[in-house]
Amino acid sequence: MSLWTSLEPASATVDPGASTRVRLRVRNTGDVVDEYRFEPVGSVAPWTTVEPPTLRLFPGTTGTVELTFAPPRTPDATAGPNPYAVRITPTEHPDAVTVPEGNLTVTPFTEVRAELVPPTVKGRFRGRPRLAIDNLGNTRVTASLSGTDTGDRLSYDLQPGNVQIEPGRAVFVDATLRPRQIIWFGSKEEQPYALAVRRSGAQALEIDGTFVQRGFLPRWLATALSLSLALAIAFVMIWLAYKPQVRSLAAEKLEQAGVSTLPPPSPSAPGNVKSSPPPPPEEKPAEEPAASPSPQAGGGDGGGGGGGGDDEEKPKERTAATAVQELAARSDGRHICYRAYVADRGWQDPVCDGAEAGTTGKDLPVKALNIAVAGTKGTAGNGAHVVEEWLTGDKWSSAADGIDMYIGSTKEAVSPLQGFTIKVTDGSVCQNTHVANKGWMGLGCTKPGDWMYGGSPMEEAQNLEAIRLTV
């Protein structure tokens, strides 16, 4: 070996976002002039520089290079001891490579960022935001979660209530807000609240949000019901006080003409003034029972016949379950088929595995969806409407493989969908939605067994127009 090296110091400490230097001394112990090339290696090499990168030494002389370590203030700079090395390659003897090694300790730092998605939620009985927590530090974060508001008007259910987040990772916390008092009549009320991320020895990180509580019935409806009840009571009181006397007009006319309604006395008994009994009603001959006009009316008694042969049986409706069963029979694996109920158009034909259902550029919203899967052990979902939002509350629709699942409503009085949640029992499901005034929102996929929301942001309440689904 024709080279001697020394790291001064061999161990160093540095803070993320700062820098430190280590001196590397090199001596040419050979008998020829040689040039040495320096190259940092190891996990810290991306943020290590060597100055100068090459050094030319005469025999018996010593030179010095400086190693500068500048770890970034990101999760990539792992806290704790990090070994490093410098590869020294002689020009004259490229096979005689020397690799001196040292140790660099990176100090830990903590940085946590949190965000409410969405920051504003609406509901009559509950609101369901999600809290996203990112660990931007270089060490593990352990935290507990809690919720607060002015006046203690809300209760909070946070799942999970405690989190552990590795460096560079993020977790999602599902929050359920419930008002302690229901607004039965009246307009909506805004209730500010905050979710706090609490860490031992650090100040709590609070994220502000707003819960908009809607009245169960609008104020105008309460006024209308009160007015209707008052009018009904007034009408009954007037009727009881001034009940009209009903009398036959025919009887009045007969009295004015001096005609009695009694029959004349019998000529065989002049003194008899008793009226004769009225004659018995004429007996009509019995009629044959009429034949039933169609089989749907229940059928005849075997008399007429031939009345129901003209009606044709309606063809069976082709649903998403029909399509996915046919597709699974042709091709093994995972499949998803679906169709959309489009306003003013009705149900479309089902499509499968990423094809487009609904319309784009025609201003025709989707009111309901019919979905069926194969190979995922079932699916579940819920629909969010533009006006009513989560019409069925926390009651999801679900169906096993090969069975139809419906979300939304085809009723004219119910507003169109603005979005929907979906999940599959086994594996993941991906969705892309086309929203009025926004276009395609981009592909999003669930984690295995988890659910996700697709469609218009809830605070914007735009019509859903088309979807694409894959599993």
From TrEMBL:
Matches recorded under InterPro entries: ChW
Keyword tags: Hydrolase, Membrane, Transmembrane, Transmembrane helix
Segments of this protein annotated with the region Disordered: 259-321
Transmembrane segments: 220-242
Pfam families attached to this UniProt entry: ChW
GO molecular function, one term: hydrolase activity
Gly residues bias (residue ranges): 297-308
Protein name: Hydrolase
Record organism: Streptomyces galilaeus
